[in-house]
Design goal:
heterodimer; A: 146 residues; mainly alpha; 0% strand; elongated; B: 127 residues; 3 helical TM bundles of succinate and fumarate reductases; 4 helices
């Protein structure tokens, strides 16, 4: 339906984010990168207003901080931290790939065909492990040690 | 180089800046116990306690890093949002409207954030 409306058979709009298809796990990392990016942007735009209150002095700052205190805001901040951990580390992976590293050299198309995704997979796994380490450090800080 | 190619290159460059500066911000704010950077939370307690905010606010380097992070994050985020919206193939007039709204909104937020960073710096220095 969407493809027909747009006039491009491969253009599925946001629905295309839901299906990995032949792109496999990296496609879901792409979807998660977008979702975390949008979440971080929404938080950041509000964050500018809230933190600008420091220009109003101690009273203004403490009033603003008081307005964003409570368990819902703490959970929200925790989700922002988790989104940051994934988005930042996955962004490094995307930068490495954008520069042509970690995708392997050109090979002859001999059956069974290999794609650069086979070469990229360790990088994707490394990203998830590193993001998980940061996530665990943040979890300890948010909920256990602080 | 085409305009969008240039903007994409700036998008990646802004990502690198954000990686370092937001990484530092997150470490100071949300990893203050697991990775304590005592020099950036000199008053102890929570990083958002007023005494810590003032202590960091006295540093010109910190004020400058706020402004750089603000600009880089606004550009990276709003350009990313623009790309996502443009992928949905809106009509030409809507594309133009989206571009103008994001540009004007981004500049407005940059002015507000920069004013707050400079005013906070002046206030902290005066205390």
């Amino acid at each position: 339906m969407l493809a027909k409306k747009n006039g491009f058979p491969n253009r599925l709009g946001v629905w295309g984010w839901l299906g990995g298809g032949r792109w496999g796990a990296e496609r879901y990392l792409y979807t998660l990168h977008r979702l975390t990016g949008l979440g971080l942007l929404a938080y950041f735009l509000l964050h500018i207003f809230v933190t600008s209150s420091r220009a109003l002095g101690q009273t203004g700052w403490e009033q603003a901080m008081g307005a964003v205190t409570g368990s819902i805001f703490k959970i929200g901040e925790y989700l922002v931290f988790a989104a940051f951990a994934f988005h930042a580390i996955n962004g490094i992976r995307l930068g490495i790939i954008e520069l042509g590293f970690g995708v392997g050299g050109p090979i002859e198309p001999v059956y069974p065909y290999r794609t650069s995704l086979d070469v990229q997979r360790p990088l994707a796994i490394g990203v998830l492990v590193l993001a998980a380490v940061i996530f665990v450090l943040g979890t300890l800080n948010f909920w256990v040690l602080e | 180089m085409m305009r969008d190619q240039k903007l994409w290159t700036w998008h990646l460059a802004a990502g690198v800046v954000i990686l370092f500066l937001l990484g530092l911000n997150m470490t100071v704010m949300h990893l203050n116990v697991t990775i304590p950077l005592r020099g950036l939370n000199p008053a102890g307690g929570h990083p958002i306690d007023w005494a810590n905010v003032v202590a960091r606010g006295r540093s010109a380097a910190f004020m400058l890093s706020y402004v750089i992070l603000l600009g880089a994050a606004l550009f990276h985020g709003l350009y990313g949002l623009r790309n996502i919206l443009f992928e949905l193939d809106p009509a030409r007039w809507l594309k133009r409207t989206i571009g103008v709204v994001l540009l004007v909104g981004g500049i407005g937020l940059f002015v507000l954030g920069t004013w707050a960073a400079i005013a906070g710096f002046s206030l902290a220095r005066a205390m």
